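Q: My labmate handed me this sequence with no annotations at all. I'd like to see what the chain might look like in three dimensions before we decide whether it's worth expressing. Could you predict it?
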Amino acid sequence: MNKLNKKHHKILDSIFIEPIKSNVNWNDIEKLLKALGTEISEGRGSRVRFYLNGVRAVFHRPHPQKETDKGALKSMRRFLIEAGVK
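A: Here is what I predict for the chain of 86 residues:
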């Protein structure tokens, strides 16, 4: 795992905080995943594929807004847990 900076830790905390937030910026999540060593590949349309520690997931980039909705954040949380993060 690569080195996480202060902002990465803040984003990670915002993914796992209860109740689930609805204003987490998607680009910040992607930066966090890159810092964790996640392989990221583009899918069709707004789809993005992630591969981390043997776990695969596909998400849709939010558009036109920049924030991730609660459902996607819940799925991201599950992906990170399955991949052994936090």
